[in-house]
Batch of 2 targets.
Target 1
Amino acid sequence: MQWLVSGAEPESLYAPILTEERLRAGAVRELVKLLPWYKRTLQMEPTLALHLTSVLRSGFERSYLLRQLESLDIPADVAERFLRGLEDDGACRFAETGLYYNQVINEAAFEKGVVVQCQYMKNRLVVSETLARCLRLLDGLMPAEEYRRLLSEHIGGEEYARRACQSLAKQGLILGCDAARPTTLDHGPLRWNIEITDGARLIGAEEWELRLRFVEESFRAFYFQSKNIFPAPPVQLWGDLRAVTESGVDYFWQLYFKLQKFGATVPVNLRLASQQPEVDLHEFGRQVPSLFTWNLVADLRRGGAQLVEGVCEGGGALRPGVRGTLTLLAEREVPARLAPVCESAYVKLYFTERPESATDPGLPLKFRRAVHRACKPHMRREGCGALLSPYVDASGGVYTCALEGAVGLGHIQDGARAVEQNRQALLKESKGACSFGLNPCSPEARGRGEELPQACRDDAAAEWTLQAFNCP
Amino acid sequence: MNLPFKLKWLGPETEDACASLAPYQPLIHVQRAPAHCEPIRDLTALPYSVTRVIDLSDAPRADDDRAPENGRGPTFEVSRLEYTSRELSSVYEFYFEVYSKSTALAYLRGQALYTYVEWLHQDLLAQRFVAFARAFADRKVVAGCLLKRFSASGAYDGEGPPEEDSALREENTVGVALCAAHPQHASPELYTSLLARAGEWARREGYSFLAAASEPGLVVDGGRENAAWLFGSKTKPFLHRGVGALLYCDLGRCSYLPRDFYFYSCEGTEPCLHYVANVSPGASRAVPFLSSLKGIRKLAHTRRGETRGVLSKAGFDCELL
């Protein structure tokens, strides 16, 4: 079997082959030229590149890659030519590897087979019970020879073991590598968070000018962002609920004209304080442009639970907007009395420690799912996505994310390039996670799915939405 | 046709604004209304969006997929899309040989004159289609229907959390993304047979509903891209997310507007469809549209006596304004 190895990061697993440099150099443009005439539409290059970046990653076997390229309607001969071109350029190579990695993080019985959820794949797969048993023999990362020996003993013969291994590789369930370091390559920040309150006041026009110039400079430096392709809203605002609602609606009408070019929606995260203002957030939201969606953030460690209960009991005045979310920051456990909140709002949870709650099947399903979603970085055995959602505070300081404990990246006056260099440096050192996040090299990130609460594992087959990153 | 006036909900001032504009504007659409609001004088509550579905539990069963005994008539094939190169080429073949030609030759109201293929590339790359149903005549594809993963939010809510409590979910509903027939073979029977096969496949796969794309609570232009198959099938409308907008509608003066329009009211426990028929019966889609809906109370309003005659004869309650 031939496993894809990254030229830039030969010791990393799931490293992107189509790096920023290769995309900007036109690697995918050359591929589009080989496709039929009706594929050469305006947006085909970046659209195809977006799908290829999740497929062309180190660790996958060649047959799996060719199958994925075929599913993107790239003819087999064109796919082979494309891969050969990447090899000739030194972007990657195909080779036998010494280690195998099991990327399945959850499984559940499904009809006559087993449905599995993988760390690096969007869709769930159904495999036979036999193949599922073969998968279970591969404990995370294991020497290839040892796994093949275990498989031979289990399945009864080397030939069957070879076929089982090939079948698993062809479906992308096992990856091959010589080392499993997390990749330090990415495609730039996916979103910029901007603080709009400075104490009791909102930042002014001049401060906005600096921030917008900085954000535009940052996005221009990356392939997808420079083409206005964002998997998430590219700009998100943070502020104090009292200061924002007391500012009046005119501020947001002015802001609307500055931010509308960045996307169809701009989420606004409002922090609940100890003394909540007498305000109907829905009424406020209706008077400002519909570009803004309203979310609430409550820190349960600092009396936030009472605030959130007030949200539930206040007749809906302080509920998040129609498409909004309620973000709860907790230490280890979310009080079960907050479970009704999950019925009326979409809840995102962040924990400073590994969450332990929501194991009781008697708790509402939506509540258990919210805790389940918070376990993603632990389940996926990788970092929380820090550095993909950096934050600019009221004084212009740039940090790795908007939550407590984030690492500094510089100041907007340093320029987007300098900040990006700092971000890349932190990425290479696998640092940058905040108090609620996870560094990819941490023991928790290397943990296994069995450590999950039983309730989470049972729910896994019911509902799962993988997102590219976890930071707010 | 643009709505005469659109307002944003500003609270009680909106009610006053509607009252002052009403003498000049017979139809006023108030956007982003509060989700829970008391009934407001002269304003009708509209749902956030409406999805029309064929309920597969009571849809007619398709005949067996056999070639017709006398050798005439189309044969059908429905299969799950596994995204192999052969299947993808058949999708493109259908798009260029059937769909593009049907839109170029048949003008559909509301359909853009220039249909660009970019959206098909994007949906195929994202693997949004789940199945492909085709009708063959003389070994050539004469009609096709692409089934897509369902999203209750449709085209009117780009982001936000999924609606977990909706009766329509991705697990039990599959959407009709595209349904087209070659102009030389198109007929209501062909659409009906094709959808019956697609419905049969969906039922076997465990789906409960076959859905069209969502539309808003108020539709001013009655022409839709998939009108041919929608009007030929019996569909049930599902109203999503309670109140999404409010409507001021002076029926008497709205009947002078140059187009038909309809809206779904969702006040109280019984939703209702109101159809205002303004154009002549020959040009109006009132009868096929109303005939294609079931499970909802229907009221038609018109200023034209002949239109009322046609609708009454078809069995619909029609108020003469």
Note: Chain A touches chain B through 32 residues (CB under 8 Å).
Target 2
Amino acid sequence: MPSSSARCLSALPLRRARPLLGTYVEIIVRDAPVPGIARTFARAFAAIEQVHRLMSPRDPSSDVARMNAALIGRPVKIHPWTDEVLAAARHLSEISGGVFDVTCGPGHDAPGWRELNRRPGGRVCRLASVTVDLGGIAKGYAVDRAVAALQEAGVRAATVNAGGDLRSFGDEPHSITIRHPASPGCLIPVGWLTTGAFATSANYLDAPGAGRLRRPDGRRLWTGRSSVSVHAPTAMIADALTKVVAAVGPDRSAPILRRYGATALIVTRSGRITCIDERGEGNHATRAAA
Amino acid sequence: MSRPGFSWTIGAAAAVIASTSGYAAEYLTIEQAQQALLPGVRLTPAPIQLTSSQRAAVAARAGTRVRSPALRAWRSARGDWFLVDEALGKHEFITFAVGIDSRGAVTGVEILTYRETYGGEIRRPAWRAQFTGKTVASPLKLDTDIQNISGATLSCRHVTAGVKRVLETYALVLRSLP
């Protein structure tokens, strides 16, 4: 019987997918030591599951549910991963002037993100009756943790794709496609990814009005039914920045993207494309796709 | 090495070539999934047909229809089970596998194949002009090259419902088999 490692060697890239985080999470390993590859996949998927356990609002034992259930002013001990996400969320709120906000509250007078107080020792408390929702950032973070697990296991090149939030590492550029917002079955190649993350937010699968964007005045805003894609060093930041770009548009988001070393693409349903590239040019419109 | 992490190509293209064919991904064969979910366990096929009352009981508990009475099931001598089932979304067609160990614990869920087709929606004349060589009447060719698709989040609720159906089948029918 041929050894499983010899069989695997000729079968790289290896692809696995599981239903997690409410979507399909796909892991493609392109270059890795083959002995123990099954355990490598298991560890990466386990990291995804861990993020889900910590940040799912529906699981009463998750950090998010516990934060939201705690009395105002009562500190709650959270996992270091949750703390890392909250720290990044706060920075995003500061940089975006509150456009990115992982809280929603009963009133819209004050930005809710200021009511989340991170304490030493991995504790957080709510200073007002706001609800924490990490849905706009947790999926990207899960991708980053899975990537870390793969790298720790010695994988040299791979891609993790959680429902369209993806991150790659390794040497081989590979084509990234997005869905045309007017026809989601149409896949449009947009570029070549070597390292970093790529996230897309769009509502072409949702009812109109869905989304968790926030303007400083509390109103939700979404740029029509366009698709917004962001490339950034990490999937967590790419995921979060798609919401910022969609909320404030290309011109105002250009400096925010630049702070994070990110670039972005907006595709409208009519096929009009706007690129926000590393030169920071907003509204750099190019020809229509269709 | 200062290769950029990402190179946009879309701005430079003369026209965007969008794929009109459906997309398919093959992740694991049944044998590979068996190895992944129940490593080292010797499995033999267990061709089980559900009776109509069993189908009704499973459907009632799971909240979804049981599309076929014929189970695609494998079992080990000591009572591990490996089951393959399908989930249908509006545009997605997925086969998946569930591993259950001899104590009744789920060892995992793996997607075997993923297929999506949106062919019926692509009819607008403006689209046709781009796709020289392809006609509307062309049969859908499923693209099985690895596509790294970044898009709005597809819900896996159909697979989740399918897994629940599989687990109810195990609880109601398989667990008590000798």
Note: Strands of chain B lie at 6-8, 23-26, 44-45, 72-75, 81-88, 92-100, 106-116, 148-150.
